[in-house]
Each structure stands twice: as C-alpha cells, then as structure tokens.
Amino acid sequence: MGYEAGVQQGRGLAAMKLIGSIAILTVVSLAFTLDARPQETRTVSQDDDFALDASKSYVYLQVDHLGPRKPLTEGEPSVGLWLRLRNNCRIPIVIATFGAAGELAVVDEVVPDPPSPKGDAAGSGVVYQTGEEGLTDIFRWPNMNEAEARGAEDALKLRQRGAPNYHDLGRPHGYNDGYGPGVETLKVIPPKGEVLFSVPMSHVSETWHFEIPFRFALKSVGSSQRPPYSYVAFFWDDIPQAYSTGSAKP
Asked: Which of 16, 38, 109, 171 sits at 20 to 30 Å (Cα–Cα) from 215?
C-alpha cells in the first residue's frame, strides 16, 4: 500500500469514528430530551367511570308508582309499591326473582331500621379522614335487635296457623329464606338494563325497610375467590312525599 493510500484509509477510519460519535451523541441527546418532556396527564372522562351515569349510584332503585297489586302470598295487602331496579354500571348484575313480567317479585329481606335518621348509620365511633365522610354509611347494623328479628319470625308462624290480627304483631317476613311466592329464578340485568317489580306496601314502614341482594354476574373462581355480593336498600323516606301519607301507609 502506497503512502497516499494509507493516508486516505486513515482519513476514512477517522471519519467513520466521528460519524459514530455524532450518532451516539444524538441518541443520548434525544434520550435526555424525551426524559425531560413533561409527563402527559391523562384526563379521565365520564366514559372511564364505573358508573355509566356519574350522577347516580351504580345500582339503584327508582319508584315507578304506588297502586293495586295482586297479593302473591296469603295476607298481603292489595296495595303495592312498584319499583325499577336499574344497573348503572359496566358489569351485568344478577338478582333472584319470582313470577313473570307484570307480576314480577324479587327476593328481599325486611329488616328493622337502625336507630338513626333515615335508616343510615352515622358511623359514630369510626375514625375517618377528611373527604371520607360520605363513606360511613357502610357501617350499618340493621339486625342489631335480635328480639325484633325473632318477633317477625313468630308473627309469620302465627299467620301460617291462621291466628287473627297477625298484622298487629310487627314486621312481616320478606320474600327470602323460602318464604317467597314460588320458585326462585335468576335474572341477569345487563349494563343500562332494569327490572320493573313490585313489593307489598307492608315490606316498608317508618320502622323497617327492605333490602334486595345482588352480585355481579361474574363466575366464581374458587372457594377463596368468590365474587363479592351486596344489596340495595329501600326506606320509608325513599317514597315520594305524595305517596307517603294517608292511605299509602301500611
């Protein structure tokens, strides 16, 4: 190799090293630039919320009307409360029902009200942080008076035996624990779906309310991973004022 050829080869290697260094610097500089960019803030829209209508609970009851109702068990009043149970969340829910459309009833439990305004416990004695005040309604003790629960069971037994004036004996039993008007059938309510049903007016009063159990329509994975279940409650104060006076009282 001649002198000039060696010089040219040396210049070529130097140029390649320079280009490589520039490329590395460019990559490093770009990495620092990207790292220095402010993180993008993701705005959560209503479409991202679990509740489809953010102004309402994810599952709730809405009064449709109060009016005539065919009694489904012996001794029930002929006046009923017609309600819509609405699924306002993104996951189907499931409830247990009786009957067919037009005479549909749901499994419910009639329980005494806790000794607090509007039936919701104030959460006294529970420590919470600022901003968590609205979460204390999870602490409710509807069956705190065992004597009342036993009294309701005794009243039902007397009714079944044909005892007179059993209505004066207290709170009735709900459509649960085998006391419903037939065979229980599962009903899946899809997102945005609803079920129109009725309950006897005797299932709610100024001293007791009823609760409807439900759960998400998800498969159980195993004994240690059962899906959680909940209930939606209805109190006397939830009846529109126009219905909660006069003959509407049970």
From this structure: 171
